[in-house]
Amino acid sequence: MWKQLKRVSIPVFSGDVKVYENWKAAFLACIDVAPATPEYKLLQLRQYLSGEALKVIENLGYSATAYQAAKDRLDRKYGGKRRQIALRFEELHEFKPIRAGNAKDVEHFADLLDITIINLKDYGLYSELDSKLLYLVLCKKMTESMVTQYQRWVRENGKEESIEVLREWVIKEAEYRTRAHEAIRGVSDLVLSVGLIISQGGEQGHL
């Protein structure tokens, strides 16, 4: 069965903090757990680093001890719970308010909200999910009509306003708006819009 799985491609990491955790997960799954010596794994590690990231470990040598030291250095500079959560909050704060009638804005907001909550749970920061300030910041990203619809949905379904309940509603709303957009303008138009966001490195793409 394992032979049928498609080989995972490890990207080259050059120092972008935003992609470090994804790069690290790929490297650990493909190289770190492999039945090879630490010295060989260090050689592999160097192949998947460039620029600033490579400079972080280039003076460590090639010993078994150096391999662990290299991973530790990379974690200190680019990883860590605090840094990843700060990045998620930064993305949310920088996200521009949703434009009325714009399906891709709602979809992008749903994605940001989803990954933020997942990260908070992964790192055990459940208290942040009860943050009233964060909740208000998120609500202000929506249009007035969206907030009205959300609050009506909360009351009609006997729920209490919270970040997780907001995520549930936004994800449903994004799905409905995407379907409506596809029905009116066609699938290709929406795919082109979303593809533009991805090609721009995850930026919101407001003009």
UniProtKB/TrEMBL annotation:
Q: Which domain of life is it from?
A: Eukaryota
What the entry lists under InterPro entries is as follows: DUF1759
Stored Pfam families: DUF1759
Q: What is this protein called?
A: Uncharacterized protein
Protein species of origin: Holothuria leucospilota (Black long sea cucumber)
Q: What is the lineage of its organism?
A: Eukaryota, Metazoa, Echinodermata, Eleutherozoa, Echinozoa
